[in-house]
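The data are passed on as follows:
___
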Amino acid sequence: MKLRIKKADQDDIDKIIIVSSAILLTLSFFAPVVLIQFVQEILHFSYDHWLFTAPRRAFHTVMGAMILLPALAAAYFIVRHMLYKKNSSFKAGGIFLAAALLSLPMVLVGLNHYYYFDNTGLHYNSLSSINETVYSWDDISAIEPVSINNGGRLTFQYIFIFKTGDEVIIEGTDEFLRYREKIYERVKDNGGDILERREISG
């Protein structure tokens, strides 16, 4: 009787894992955009911001966390099936669970990766930091525009070079381009330079 109950419980758990994995895999392609924008809007919105943006790496990190769980679930079933065929007991469930928990900090750092400009300068929170770094306008030594030709696909980046030696790469999104001249003017007004565009072939 106990074996039947245990088998039924395991079957229910397997179904939950399979359904949850399928849902997460489907959501991973569009949910990060909605989730990041929603959370950052709640936590950081201010009318003082000129523009507020999450870099692409933020979305990729959250997407990776969501894909990690279905990948671990697939590995879990494959390993368990292989051990079952060899009549060996499966005792590694805890390892897979611990690995799955890694997705939580991945989501958190992705949600906390952003930058924005306002009257005081550039505010940047990298993937590797939990604290926002503030660069005032007079901290900016120069901006170097970069165009990257990757097989006919042209993308743009803007490297902000600071007097401390730090560099921050800002993607040339449509939103950034709307404020580019305003940012350039503020940098030049505070003694910074706008360098010649550098072209890179990918």
Remarks:
- The chain has two domains: 2-111, 132-201.
